[in-house]
Every structure is written in structure tokens, then in C-alpha cells.
Design a protein that fits this description.
The protein is of the alpha+beta class and about 575 residues long. Helix content is about 40%, strand content about 25%. The strands form five sheets. Strands 3, 4, 5, 6, 7, 8 and 9 form a seven-stranded mixed beta sheet that branches. Strand 18 and strand 19 form a beta hairpin. It is globular and about 75 Å long. The structure holds adenosine monophosphate (AMP). Adenosine monophosphate binds next to strand 1 and strand 2.
Amino acid sequence: MNYAELVEVYEHLEKTSARLKKIDIIAKLMRETPTDMLSKVTLLLQGKVFPSWSEKEIGIADLLMVKIVSKSTGFSEKEILSKFKKTGDFGLVIQELAEKKKQRTLFAKSLTVGKVFENLQKLADIEGKGSQERKFSLVSELISSAKPKEAKYIVRTTLGDLRVGVAEGIIRDAIARAFFKGEKEEMKEIVNAVEWAWFLKPDYGEVAKLAKEGGLKALKKVGIEIGKPYHVLLAEKSTSLEDALEAFEKPALEYKYDGARIIIHKKGNDIWLYTRRLENVTKQFPELIGYVKECVKAKSCVIEGEMLGFDSKTGKPMPFQFLSQRIKRKYEIEKVVKEIPIQVNLFDIVYLNGDVLFDKPLESRRKVLEGIIKPKPGKFQLAEQLVTKDLKKAEKFYEEALKAGQEGLIVKNLEARYQPGRRVGYWLKVKPIMENLDLVIIGAQWGTGKRAGWVGSLVLGCRKGDKFLECGMIGTGIKEKEDKEGVTFTQLTELLKPYIESEKGRDLRIKPKVVVEVAYEEIQKSPNYTSGYALRFPRVVRIRFDREANDADNLERIEKLYGMQRSRSK
Ligand code: AMP
């Protein structure tokens, strides 16, 4: 299959914004694609050469790309950078420059999808000495036999920025459209089956192949594969503890531990660990592998829990950043095992000795789980649970959870099944609501890609005397397009431009003038910011035109709110 065919589809997709039209375009391509190429084409349509859960990355930095584009077009690195600054898209840069250099493409032979896919995949395995040169030659090889338009998409795919607007939902619907026919209701069922298969086998490349070869039956039959990640059941927000209790006939309350979801797969002595984002973290937590071997009495199983950084001196959870250091850590793992000990609180089981337990109600799943775990207190144990419908008892339990330094409670329906991938109302989160803060913008970064020319991540500051201290970065809550409500990037950029004090690379220092109201989930201690605090999941609510920098919230207030949240290990 020629890469040019795929490129035509990319071009078509880039020009089309209508969702249904995009689905039709992709479905047609999928139907016409030979079966042995279907997985590859499906991944490439999403701008990928590995499924999203794979640890492999193409790993080409912008600087290397400048060199590659320069070498293959003959234009200087300086010229390329100045063109890039205007559009923020190396794809467009190479297309334009390659067009100017036509003689090269006249002799080019056709590039195949297989060849592009293969070279891009190889990039991920290159490591060590001379790796830059080898990466350089793999990408250059493709570009030198590509036509200008093809070069555009090779470059974009290499940089992980395809820009044709194909979200996962579009691929899902396109698979259904490509390989099935039916009335509205039937199609709904088919789309659900495609999605179900993807929740458990998170690679649309494989799902497309399965749909084509095995039909609806095969999609519905997809189950858990031990050792492979799947999309987990998610929780919904509840307005109050009272409402959450009312929601279910039989509620079970559990601590909402403040850590990261950990999904543990065990098959004999083989153990795998995954996060909720499907990252494989098996290597990062050797002590947990030990706990599983010691405490899980099952030949094979898949169990879920929440993992925390835990300070055994204070008996309290550590701020999330510590655990996140362990999740990201690739080297010298033994060292952090000692510095940041973990605790796992188990709350679910979805597979045991060959049986998938999705259809069992939570009440039985919990019993099964209790039956196979020999707890190791403080390290590997069952999540605290209270079965009650009594508000007084529930409130007491909620207070205990907050006192223990946890986020709140999750109220679960004991009669509900396990629904992978979905945020269904089987689990309800209850946690304290935080008041918004008014903070000053004291820094920012120029955006890249689509956001070139706009200020992107903003540095927030709180007052201390007449100084301003950093208390986090924010990029959420700012809109790309104008609408009735909300703050846009254009608006913020115009507002902040006159106050830029200095510029270093993409980083800007900004005079404290503009105040924004910020909502967030929580205040955390953080060594990364001068105030010592950071906001978790901050989002811009509005610009406070009515406020001056001196009216913004101060450090004292942040400290006070932090103290009110819950008691934690410092
Ligand atoms: P959220 O991330 O706010 O959507 O809340 C859901 C997350 O809470 C889950 O993905 C888990 O990581 C976490 N969590 C903490 N404790 C529990 C628990 N007892 N049961 C289920 N999830 C929990």
C-alpha cells in the first residue's frame, strides 16, 4: 500500500471539520485497506506507530528535526527555525521547502505505508552511542523518497503531532461504519461493542482487525488478558455525602485514598503493574511485587487498589508528588524504594483463576478479594470500608478519612457490576470543595504547535508583603476559540504582552498586574515553587478586571486553606 494513499486521506481529514464526514472518510479507507495492513493504518491514522499504552516512544526532539529538515531540503537551520516560529509546525515547513526543491522528488520512488511504519517504529529502539546519527538517517531516508506532502505527514507523525483531528471516538465509530451495517439501534450496539473491545484491548489497530475478521461476536467476546492493561471503572462526583448515600439501596463507603490507581496482574510468579493511564510500572515498584508474591493467594488474578507514598514515621500519606517521582523513575529504583515507601489499599478484583468477574456485584467481588489476600498491615491491605446507610455513621467515617490525610470517601453501589472504561454512577466521590483563589500572573511560556504566538502555561503568584511568590502553573480553562463565556488565549496574550519583563527561550517573566480567579482541587506542598505550595488541577475561571495585584490572595490565605483541607505528612 502506498503512503500516498494515506496522505490523501490525511489531507482530506485536515480540511474537514464535520465529525460524520471524517468517520466516512476513515471508514472507506479501512474497508479498502488489506487486512495485513489494517492495524498499521489504524495506528497511523491516529498519528501513532505504537498503541497508546506502549512504553515505546519515537523520541525525536525538535532540535534534531531542525537538522533533519535542513539536511533534506538544503536550507539553513536558521531559516528553518524562523519559518517554524511563524507556524509552529515542522510539517508545513518541510512541505514548503521540499516544494522549492522539486528536482529531488522527481526521482523518488513510491514510499509504502509499511516502510514508513517500520522506520518510525525502529526509532524507538535506538539507544546509546551514535543514536542521534542513526535516528537522523532513519527519518532522512523516508524524507528523501517522499513527495512534499508526504514529507509533511512523516515529520508530523515523527513528532507526535499529526493535526488532522482524529480523536479516539472517531476511530471507534469509523470501525463500526467500515465493517458493519445496520439501523440506528443496531449501530449503537455495534459502536458499544467496538468500544468494549477497546476498553479491554486498548489498541484500535487490533480492534479494527478483530472487527473485520471476527465480527460482532469476536468484539463482544474480548475479555481481560492477563499482563495487558485495560481501561478501569471510573467514579462520578457527588454533590454531598447525603446524596451519595441516597443514591444506592446498599451503599458501601470507602476511604478515597490520595494516590494513584494500581492494577495488579498475577499469573503464577509473573506479576505486572499498570496505572489507570495504562502505563506499565512493574519495574518501578519491586517491593510491591514482593508483597503480591507474599500476600496474594491465587494462581492468577487481576486486582485493583490505590497506591500511596506513605510516611511510616508520621503514619500519614505523603503528598502526591512523591509517589509521582516513583512512577516516573527509570533508574536507581532501589534508592527511591527506601526514600518513598508505598502503601497499597486494595478495593476490587476483576479476574480470578480463569474467570472474569465483571458481572458479579461488588459485594461478592469484595468477598472474593478478602478471601485471597493475607494483609500486610500498613503496606498491602484492604481499603477501609463501612457498609451503612446511616448519615451520622457515614459522616464520622468521612471525618476519619480526612483526619487520616485522605481525600474523602468513595460511596459504592454494592449491587453494581464492574463496567470497564466508564465513568458510570456505580461509584460516587465525596470530597471537600475548595474555595477559588485570586492569583496574579507573574510568568508564562510561549505556546507551541497550534498555540504558537499565544502565551500558554501561566505562572501563578500569591502575595507576600509586596512580593509575589510562585504557587503553580496553569493552562487549563483557557479557550482557543471565542465564545460567550470564558477566557481565550488571544485575550490573555493581548492583556499580558505589555507587561513582559524578560524573555528567555519560551519562558517569560511578567510584571504582576493581571489577576485571575482560579479553581482547583486541592493545595499541595511543593518544593518546585517559591511559595512552597502548588495547586492541583488548577483552571482559570475568569480574569478579575476589578482587581489589582495588591488585592490578590496572599500566602497566609493559602496556608490557612491548606491547613483546613486535611492533615497530612509534611
Ligand atoms: P478521580 O480520580 O477523582 O476520578 O477518582 C477516582 C479515583 O480515586 C480512582 O481512579 C482511584 O485511583 C482513586 N481511589 C482512591 N480510593 C479509592 C477507592 N477506595 N475505591 C476506588 N477508587 C479509589
